[in-house]
Amino acid sequence: MIRRRDLLQWTVLSFAGLALGDWGTLEAAADPLPSGLPAEFLKRASALNYDLAKLWAAFSQVKTSYQSRNPAALWHVSTVPLLVIGNGRRIEVKSLRQLRRLEPIIFAAKIRGAVAQCEFASLFLNSDGAMIGDGEVWIKEICEDAECKKSKFLVSTIDLFG
User: Fold this and answer.
1) In angstroms, what CA-CA distances link 127 with 45, 60, 115, 117, 146?
2) Alpha carbons within 13 A on the beta-carbon side of 41
3) Alpha-carbon Rg for the chain in angstroms
4) Which residues form the domain of 70?
5) Residue 31 included in any domain
6) 60 domain-assigned
7) pTM for the whole thing?
8) In whole angstroms, what is the distance from residue 83 CA to residue 156 CA?
């Protein structure tokens, strides 16, 4: 049975370019991985054993979340806790409700601008994850099992002073 609230949430997320997957997780609309990625970017991602399709999906979801200024969509692609740095504080966000209270920080013009200007091939990749801009947003690979055979990329840090 579909509840009215669930239908409304699905409708809002669909307009934002996101869709609910089989288990209620958000998935980016089926955009293929961009072609023509620079060799150096591909080499770096390969050296880090990053699955570029997964990273692309997360990156696309982050961009869509920021374009629509949708904290719920951003929450679905974030780690728990999510580290938010701003206004002289380091906050470990543990709920969507808490994230909504921090909207002025997470959707600050500086962070929105960094996300909007970032192209996939310009992500800075290292063993800590993928960095947008000058560190305003970090997307980290999270292992879902002990052997890390199953993983996903999620936003781990939002830094107003990145």
Assistant:
1) 10, 20, 20, 23, 18
2) 16
3) 16
4) 49-159
5) no
6) yes
7) 0.80
8) 6
For residue 3, tell me if it sits in a domain: no
The total of structural domains in the chain comes to 1
> What does the alpha-carbon distance between residue 128 and residue 90 come to, in Å, rounded to a whole number?
18
Residue 70, in any domain of the structure: yes
What tens-digit pLDDT sequence spans the chain (162 residues)? 344 444 444 444 444 444 444 334 445 455 788 999 999 999 999 999 999 999 999 999 999 999 999 999 999 999 999 999 987 899 999 999 999 999 999 999 999 999 999 999 999 999 999 999 999 999 999 999 998 889 999 999 999 887
Q: What is the DSSP string of the chain?
A: ---HHHHHHHHHHHHTTEEE-TTS-EEE--PPPPSS--HHHHHHHHHTT--HHHHHHHHHHHHHHHHHT-HHHHHTTEEEEEEEEETTEEEEE-SHHHHHHTHHHHT-HHHHHHHHH--GGG-EEETTEEEETTTTEEEEEEESSTT-SSEEEEEEEEETT-
Which CATH number covers residue 103?
3.10.450
